[in-house]
Inverse folding.
């Protein structure tokens, strides 16, 4: 029989053994395997804490069930974005939401730079062709690209990850940086030029990289209208959230040569179905939502359990999440 004095903690997606051990020392842990909305609603009605990662959605219905149960104090999201949690509903129910906003900064920035180079230098395309014996043909016919020191990086969203990418490109490669953000950015430890609109970034950048949360303002923001401003020689990188970029318009722009290439780590939906437009798009390097998956990044995301425990023990968490008016 469970110890009723111990808080009941629902872990809805896999976490590390170290993080699990910390939770087990703080309460009774119940492991679930990506429960659906109905199962999660039933479980949170009897829980004091909930831990999720990427694929479990904590909807208004789940929050309502937790509110009726009267026990849930905290929801922890191991990762940066909280678009899979109804933060406003949680706040209204008096439930604290915590996340790990800095956990994946360096890992995502590293992969973003890798995707830029992979797309522009056609690494993914060349590898299988070299293996097929096309070495001489490729070497003589491969297009010449501008070095990164002669290009302009356009950043949409100059938060932690946008800054880390910019720093790598500007200080490491000499790339000019321009950016657009709806918030005032303030001091940056590298040269970067703010633009009056996202369209100005699209029109003037050789590389456009998206580092925005998924909100009602950013959902679908890169579609036909946005792509019409891109240079034909430009590339698009998305390591933020899949729904930020509209897949069919991007695939069409790639097929028609209205954009030179793309590097995509995130999809809508995930995993992408066999008929997803980007799977057959030319000049498009695809990775399976792995930008944050460094050893250090995963360890830091699992550290969300420390804030979960803090709330359960009546202490202030390090990274509380406030409702976003734009969400």
């Amino acid at each position: 029989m469970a110890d009723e004095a111990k808080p009941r903690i629902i872990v809805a997606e896999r976490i590390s053994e170290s993080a699990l051990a910390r939770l087990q020392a703080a309460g009774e842990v119940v492991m679930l395997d990506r429960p659906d909305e109905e199962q999660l609603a039933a479980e949170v009605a009897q829980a004091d804490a909930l831990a999720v990662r990427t694929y479990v959605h904590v909807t208004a219905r789940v929050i309502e069930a937790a509110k009726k149960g009267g026990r849930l104090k905290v929801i922890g999201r191991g990762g940066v974005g909280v678009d899979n949690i109804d933060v406003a509903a949680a706040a209204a129910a008096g439930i604290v939401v915590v996340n790990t906003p800095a956990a994946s900064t360096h890992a995502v920035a590293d992969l973003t730079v890798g995707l830029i180079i992979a797309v522009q230098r056609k690494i993914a395309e060349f590898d299988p062709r070299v293996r097929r014996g096309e070495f001489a043909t490729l070497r003589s016919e491969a297009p010449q690209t501008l070095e990164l020191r002669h290009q302009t990086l356009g950043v949409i969203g100059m938060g932690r990850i946008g800054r880390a990418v910019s720093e790598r490109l500007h200080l490491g490669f000499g790339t000019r940086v321009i950016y657009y953000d709806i918030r005032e950015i303030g001091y940056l430890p590298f040269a970067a030029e703010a633009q009056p609109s996202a369209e100005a970034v699209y029109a003037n950048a050789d590389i456009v990289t998206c580092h925005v949360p998924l909100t009602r303002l950013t959902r679908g923001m890169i579609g036909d209208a946005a792509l019409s401003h891109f240079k034909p020689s430009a590339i698009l990188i998305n390591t933020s959230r899949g729904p930020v970029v509209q897949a069919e318009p991007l695939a069409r722009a790639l097929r028609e040569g209205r954009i030179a290439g793309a590097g995509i780590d995130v999809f809508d939906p995930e995993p992408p179905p066999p008929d997803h437009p980007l799977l057959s798009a030319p000049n498009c390097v695809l990775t399976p939502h792995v930008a944050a998956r460094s050893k250090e990044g995963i360890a830091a995301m699992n550290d969300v359990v420390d804030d979960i425990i803090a709330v359960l023990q009546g202490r202030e968490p390090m990274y509380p999440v406030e409702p976003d008016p734009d969400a």
